[in-house]
Structures are given as C-alpha cells and as structure tokens.
Specification:
The protein has two helices and 30 strands. By secondary structure, it is mainly beta. The protein has a single domain, classed as YVTN repeat-like/Quinoprotein amine dehydrogenase (Methylamine Dehydrogenase, Chain H, 7 Propeller). The relative contact order is 0.13.
Length: about 325
C-alpha cells in the first residue's frame, strides 16, 4: 500500500454499490453495499462510526448535510439516517428498486430514482414526506445533480435533463452519444455539462447549452481497455466523479483502474496503480483532497467469478497535483 493511500478498516462484506463523502466534513464517508448495510466512517481516524441495516441490497446513498444521510435499494424503501443519534426514519416507498439518490441542498429536497420508472421528490422535514412523483419512459439507472439541473440516465440509452424547479416536463431529452448501456454519470462541478460512461469502455463529455457552438464541443473517447496477447479487452466504465475545485474528473472501471482526465484538453493526467478487483464506485471529498475508491466484484463473470473474487475493500487516496489541469490558475 502506497503512502498516499489507506485501506478502511471494517469494509462491507459484499460488493460496494456507492461511496459518498459529506458535503461539509472532508473526512466523513458513507458506503452502501450488497451486504444490506450503509456504513458511516471517519476516514481521518480510520474508524467505522455506525452501521445501518436494510432488508436487502443497498444500491444508493447520499448525504444531505453533515448529520443526515439517505439510502435506498432493492427493498424499495427510502430511508433517512440520522448520523448523530444512529436512528433510521422511513420516508416512504417506491414500487421497485431504488437505483439513485441525490439531495438538492437549496430546495432541501431529496430526489430518488427507481426501476419503477419514476423520479420522486421528498421533504424529509414534512409529516407526509413524499412531495411529488414524476413518471418516466424508462427505468432509472443513474442520476446526478448540479445547481438546479438534474440529469437522469435511463434504460434504452435515454437521458432527460430537468430544471428541478419546474418538473412538469424535461428541459431537454437526449439519446446517449454512446452505443451501449449507460453505467456511469456525473455532472461537471462548474455546472456546464456532464460525463457518461458505458459498459463498453467509453466516456462521452456533454454540455447542457443546446446552442450549436456548445454542442460542437461534445466528444466521446475509448478508455478502460487493454490489449492482452493482441486481443483488445474492453471493460465497463462503472463510475465517474468530477473534482470540486479543478473540474477534472476521475473514471473507474471493471479493469480495476482509476484514471484522472482533463476533459478540456482531452488528456489523461494520471492512471493510478491497478486495484486487484473492479472499481464500482468513486467519490471526491468536499475540498478535493481525497478520493474514495470502492473495490469489489461486479458480477461480470457471474457465479463462477464470485468464487475466486477478492474481498471488498474501500481505499482513501490523498490526491495532489495530478488532478490539476496543466497551467491551472485560480481564475481559470
């Protein structure tokens, strides 16, 4: 293990579905897992502070503030986790698995996306916490939020872009620039656009502005591929995360690698040392000094692969200038 990386003690027992940092405390992390738990860590002391049990695999989690988190998964229940009292509050249900959870801080609204083809809005403080349910044409695979723009990635390579203050219809409907199923999505820290990754080792960089000038800037590229004995091996891009300060982004794949990209110069800035299993989830902390890396089996090889799979692990990497674009100044 290199000096710039630690492995968290007491990781989940089964595949990691998500790692998420607190919006206010750079050392507080939650993880959701197929072992039916959400775990809350202090990464500075490398201690698990608390653990929350679900009735089935947990697919998604997020913080709202420093003291509250939310989770959902195959048991279809939306849970609020009080990280101070360690209590759990059931906000309500979807009718199928919850695949994505985001929190809109300005509106104090929790947004959940599900395989039941709805996006639902919740006010955790209200007695009847579900505020609205919005029908979609397909199952929700991924969502991300920047400012008041919500990007929803669905089955059939469909994308809806919403202004969450006006949810009666999507502001834009798009088809993925990638030919294969969407596996990863992240919005740019500067609010200009988003990146998506597919199961077929490609990333697309997209811009919200519908003008032809802005749309000319969008592009896609191959990654998480490797030639082994002259055969091109292609792995899914499982996760993407934008750096909160520099707006560069990290990608993680089933090849066990994590790379840092500068999408403006279209260059890879760094590839970290390979992990011994796929990387299903990554996240930068709020000040951009750390990257959490969930490492676990992702079932690409089915039951057979599970027999020899490494145990899950969560690593916390201290990041340095490798995440900074060349020639970056505070004004850029």
């Amino acid at each position: 293990m290199s000096a710039d990386q630690i492995e968290l003690a007491s990781p989940p027992f089964d595949s990691v579905s998500a790692v998420r940092f607190s919006p206010s405390n750079p050392d507080h992390l939650i993880t959701s897992s197929w072992d039916t738990t959400v775990r809350f860590y202090d990464v500075a002391t490398n201690k698990q502070k608390s653990k929350y049990d679900h009735r089935a695999a947990v697919l998604a989690c997020c913080f709202s503030d420093g003291n509250h988190a939310y989770s959902g998964g195959l048991d279809t229940s939306v849970r609020e986790l009080d990280l101070q009292t360690e209590s759990v509050n059931h906000l309500g249900q979807h009718s199928d698995a919850i695949s994505s959870i985001n929190f809109a801080r300005e509106q104090n609204t929790l947004i959940t996306g599900s395989w039941d083809r709805t996006v639902r809005f919740w006010d955790p403080r209200a007695a009847n916490s579900q505020q609205a349910s919005h029908e979609l044409p397909e199952r929700v695979y991924n969502m991300d939020l920047v400012n008041h723009i919500l990007v929803v990635a669905m089955a059939s390579r469909l994308f809806h872009i919403y202004d969450i203050r006006k949810m009666d219809s999507p502001a834009q409907t798009r088809e993925s620039s990638l030919k294969f199923m969407t596996r990863a999505l992240a919005c740019m820290a500067d609010g200009q656009g988003y990146a998506t990754g597919s199961v077929e080792g490609r990333i697309a960089v997209e811009y919200f502005d519908p003008s032809p000038q802005a749309q000319e800037k969008k592009y896609a590229f191959k990654c998480h591929r490797q030639a082994i004995d002259d055969v091109d091996h292609v792995w899914p891009v499982n996760a993407l995360a934008f750096h909160p300060v520099y707006n560069t982004f990290a990608s993680a794949g089933s090849d066990g690698t994590v790379s840092i990209w500068d999408h403006k110069s279209k260059k890879r800035l760094r590839q970290y040392q390979k992990y011994n299993a796929p990387v299903p989830s990554i996240a930068f902390n709020c000040d951009g000094t750390k990257l959490a890396v969930g490492v676990s089996y992702t079932w690409e090889e089915g039951e057979e692969g599970a027999k020899t799979a490494e145990r899950p692990a969560v690593y916390i990497r201290t990041v340095g200038d490798e995440v900074k674009p060349k020639g970056w100044t505070a004004s850029s």
